[in-house]
Amino acid sequence: MADVRAAGAEPLVLDVEHAAPADLEQAMAGRDVVVWSAGAGGGDPERTYAVDRGAAIASRDAAWSAGVRCYVTVSYLGAGPHHGVPEDRDFFPYAEAKAAADEHLRGAALDWTILGPGPSRRTNRPASWRWTRGTAARACPVSLRGDVARMIAAAVDSGAAIGRQVEFVAGETPIERVSNR
Length: 181
Description:
The chain is of the alpha/beta class. The chain is about 35% helix and about 15% strand. A 6-stranded mixed beta sheet has the order 1-2-3-5-4-6, sandwiched between helices. The protein is globular, with a radius of gyration of 16 Å.
């Protein structure tokens, strides 16, 4: 949390799986931006649905109620209703939860951005600070902590990705050039 404070932000720790809507709203009150990157961590489908779908959807509603208009969520490359993950795969609950939560955000009256880093096995390797639009053919892993964090900051700072799902992988374009093209 010291890193978050050093970057000029105030961290907030909240059990989003069990938080009441009023708790979420109170946590978001007075904020300029909500960045949602919470996740259940896999393993338990019930918990995955509770956090990656239920709490995510509740957070969007709470952001609106709290007066926050800018909302960025971290999803994954390929997320959506046609994700193609077979029902018998461990990843299926996560894919379904993200599809539902992302779709809810698309319908929200917020300045939203959905970031889809890929591939699904993101890494903690050193950040490259560079990106390219993600596709299955371009499955270069991104640095989870470095490049994804920089992409979040660039999306918020530029506002260029509002109303867009930006799927990305490691590439050659400086992250600060995130756009809605």
